[in-house]
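ok so I'm stuck.
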Amino acid sequence: MILASWIAVIFTGLGLFSPRNPTVYGVLFICAVSVSTAVLMILEMDQPFEGFLQVPATPLVSAVDEMRR
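replied:
not stuck anymore, here's the structure
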């Protein structure tokens, strides 16, 4: 929550104090998409067995089986 608020303040400040033209809007959009993608990837990697990107559990299960032998 703190990170999202901090990023919102930064983009608001950049949007308020920058000149109004399509280049600035495009750069702000690209930056916003890249930051939101980075936050999404951090949240996805927090739970590797759930979500959009799932890590298969079979290598972990087979490693545990080998260690039990």
